[in-house]
C-alpha cells in the first residue's frame, strides 16, 4: 500500500502548491498565451483542469490515507473506485499538460481554443431549452469571429479525444518529468485508459483482468462461483500514471505562470503544511 499512500500524499502536496500560485506574472508564458485570446484565459482553464484532477485524487487520499481515524473504521479496497477516480484525474490533468506542451504561445493558444470550442459544443448538447442552445451557439460563433483574422475554425482543429490527449500527456511527462517509461508507452497507456474507462462503465472484462479470479463451488456444469480480489499491481499502475501527470501538470503550471524562482519556497511550505496534518502513530 505504500505506493498508494505516496500518491495520496503527493496529491495533497501539489494541491497546496497550486493554491500558492497566483496570477500569471509579467513576462510569463501564460501572459503571452493569454494574450492570444484574453476573453477565455488559458491560465484559468489550465488551473481548473488541474483543480478538477486534484478533487478526484484527494477523494482517493481521504480513502486510502485519511487524516482522521475512528477506532472502528475499516477501509475496504475494491477495484472500480480507484480506477474511476484515477481515470477522471488523468483526463482532467492531461488537458492542462497538452495545452502547456504546445511549444509556442500561438500553438498553446490554438490547443486552448480547441478545448474551449469543444466545451461549448458539449454544453450546448446538454442544454435543455432552445433559447439556451441558441445562446451557446452564438457564443461559439462569437469566439470564431474574434479569431477570424488570426486563425480559421479549420486550422483550430477538432478536439483530439481523451485517449489521444492522455497518450500525448503521458509521453510529455515521460520525456520531461518522472513517470515510469513503461507507463508512457502508447499501448500501455491505452490499456490503462481503456481498463479504467471500462471499470467506470461497469464493463465485465476489467473485473476479470484487473482482479485475481479464484473459482469456487461449481453451481452448474462448467459454471463456477468465483471469489475476486483486486490486483494491487493494477491499482498501483493507474495511480502512478495519474499521480505523475498531475504532479507534472502542477509544476509546469507554476513554471508557465512565472513562479519558477519561488518554487523551492513554495514546495517547502507545502511540505511543512502536509507534515503538520499527517497523523502520527502513538508508538512511532
Evaluate the radius of gyration: 21 Å
- Work out the number of β strands: 2
In percent, how helical is the residue content? 55-70%
Q: N- to C-terminal separation? A: 18 Å
Query: Strands of the largest sheet, in order across it?
Result: 1-2
Task: Give the mean pLDDT.
Answer: 92
Note the main sheet: 2 strands, antiparallel
Order of helices and strands: HHHHHHHHHHEEHH
- Determine the strand fraction and express it as a percent band: 5-15%
Low-confidence residue ranges: none
Number of helices: 12
Principal-axis shape equals globular
Return the structural class: mainly alpha
Q: What is the count of distinct domains?
A: 1
What does this structure look like?
There is one protein chain. With 284 residues, this protein is mainly alpha-helical. The chain has one domain. 68% of the residues lie in helices and 6% in strands. It contains twelve helices and two strands, in the order ααααααααααββαα. The chain has helices at 2-20, 29-36, 42-64, 79-100, 105-126, 130-147, 153-156, 162-176, 186-200, 204-209, 232-256, 263-277; strands spanning 211-220, 223-230. It has a two-stranded antiparallel sheet. A hairpin with a 2-residue loop joins β1 (211-220) and β2 (223-230). α4 crosses α9 (186-200), α4 runs parallel beside α11 and α5 runs antiparallel to α6 (130-147). The longest helix has 25 residues, at 232-256. The mean pLDDT is 92.
Amino acid at each position: 500500500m505504500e505506493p498508494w499512500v505516496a500518491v495520496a500524499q503527493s496529491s495533497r502536496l501539489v494541491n497546496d502548491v497550486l493554491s500558492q500560485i497566483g496570477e500569471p506574472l509579467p513576462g510569463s508564458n501564460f501572459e503571452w498565451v493569454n494574450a492570444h485570446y484574453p476573453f477565455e484565459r488559458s491560465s484559468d482553464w489550465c488551473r481548473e483542469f488541474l483543480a478538477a484532477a486534484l478533487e478526484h485524487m484527494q477523494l482517493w487520499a481521504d480513502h486510502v490515507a485519511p487524516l482522521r481515524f475512528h477506532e472502528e473504521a475499516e477501509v475496504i479496497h475494491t477495484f472500480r473506485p480507484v480506477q474511476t477516480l484515477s481515470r477522471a484525474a488523468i483526463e482532467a490533468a492531461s488537458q492542462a499538460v497538452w495545452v502547456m506542451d504546445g511549444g509556442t504561445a500561438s500553438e498553446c493558444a490554438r490547443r486552448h481554443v480547441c478545448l474551449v470550442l469543444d466545451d461549448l459544443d458539449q454544453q450546448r448538447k446538454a442544454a435543455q431549452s432552445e433559447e439556451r442552445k441558441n445562446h451557446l451557439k452564438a457564443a461559439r460563433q462569437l469566439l470564431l469571429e474574434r479569431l477570424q483574422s488570426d486563425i480559421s475554425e479549420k486550422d483550430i482543429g477538432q478536439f483530439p479525444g481523451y485517449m489521444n490527449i492522455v497518450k500525448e500527456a503521458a509521453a510529455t511527462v515521460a520525456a520531461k518529468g518522472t513517470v515510469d517509461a513503461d507507463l508512457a508507452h502508447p499501448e500501455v497507456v491505452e490499456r490503462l485508459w481503456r481498463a479504467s474507462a471500462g471499470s467506470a462503465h461497469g464493463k465485465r472484462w476489467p473485473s476479470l483482468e484487473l482482479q485475481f479470479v479464484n473459482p469456487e463451488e461449481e453451481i452448474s456444469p462448467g459454471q463456477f462461483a468465483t471469489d475476486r480480489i483486486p490486483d494491487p499491481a493494477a491499482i498501483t499502475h493507474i495511480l502512478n500514471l495519474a499521480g505523475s501527470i498531475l504532479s507534472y501538470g502542477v509544476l509546469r503550471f507554476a513554471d508557465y505562470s512565472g513562479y519558477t524562482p519561488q518554487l523551492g519556497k513554495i514546495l517547502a511550505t507545502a511540505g511543512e503544511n502536509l507534515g503538520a496534518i499527517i497523523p502520527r502513530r502513538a508508538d512511532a
